[in-house]
Design the sequence.
């Protein structure tokens, strides 16, 4: 099955930017990829998604600040995060759903921590 590895997290001041990467172990050009995040004490929430055709969708809380793109040649999806706020602090996860043979199989990366200081 495909494996996902996130990178690019770190500590940044409010107003700053980070770019997260999600590298897949094989081609994911034909499937939707999504970014989720989970802050301490909160449930995991959907942040952004990008379809195989490149259509994107965003949570209201990040619209206009975050952009997700994909580079199918590199089997990689990106999340560009601008104008970061302390409330964006969370572990960010990459996720997709693949055909598991006997049904859909949800694949998650290990997550990368983003900390935004005020």
Sequence:
């Amino acid at each position: 099955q495909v494996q996902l590895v996130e990178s690019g997290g770190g500590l940044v001041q409010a107003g700053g930017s980070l770019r997260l990467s999600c590298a897949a172990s094989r081609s994911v050009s034909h499937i939707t990829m999504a970014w989720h995040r989970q802050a301490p004490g909160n449930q995991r929430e959907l942040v952004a998604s990008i379809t195989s055709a490149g259509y994107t969708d965003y949570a209201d809380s990040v619209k206009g600040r975050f952009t997700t793109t994909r580079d199918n040649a590199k089997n990689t999806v990106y999340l560009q995060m601008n104008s970061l706020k302390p409330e964006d602090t969370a572990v960010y996860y990459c996720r997709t759903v693949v055909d598991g043979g006997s049904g859909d199989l949800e694949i998650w990366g290990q997550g990368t921590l983003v900390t935004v200081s005020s």
